[in-house]
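pasting for the record
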Amino acid sequence: MPAVKLEQLKLESANLAGNFSRPEHFSSVFRDLLGGYSNRTFRLQAATGRLKPTPSYHVPDQVLRQVERDVLAQVKAHSQVQVLELADALWSAPSYEEKYLAISLLGAASVEPAEPILERYLTWYASAVDHRLASFLATVGSRGLRVGARSEWQSVLEGWMRSRRTSGLAHALLAAGDDLELEGRSRLQDGFSLLTAVLSSNDLAILPEALMFFAVLVRKSEAESLFFLRQIWLQDQRSQLVERFVPRAVQLLPEGMRSTYRPDNLKM
């Protein structure tokens, strides 16, 4: 892997961003840049998750972050149509880095109108075959919709909750977790309501995402998170998912709370 020389990288990235309105040329220049920083000694390991990894150049994070920063700085100077033309070209490319940048552009694009953004979001969501990209799409790719087209985004969430599909529930939790991280306590009660609905699905496959989301809730309010655990544990009929979730969720509480409130002692 070639050493990253910051000044050279900045020049290459700026040159790439200058081709924003020329998607085909942009893609060609981007691939040359990625190839120049590619880790050619990397050997991909067998996938063990639900989704398969996308082929990657395995460039240093510094390279992709610099490109992302410079390209996103161009978004406000271009129309939604131009932004989406570039995003489409990148999403149709084979590599992780190109799809990553496409998602960043989707999340930064204007949502006026919202329909072109929503259409692509749902299409990409349905075709995402890499867990990392699916997670990035749920968090960063949905930001424009969540901020500027809240009603349309809410309809998407409701559809996922009705379907009870694991992928939809996971997407809902990831996006809501990003909301909490960005907006803080203002969405805390919405978060507890969402987690309650997800746990009622009794889908054991959603346990990892449910625990990650609960960790965000704990960071925002330890006391309310503990109260939530008590409430779901004291239900008359606990689902198998709740039975597995609560003992693990207790371990995400601060140490003082963990030692006092165990799953068999959540009544106080």
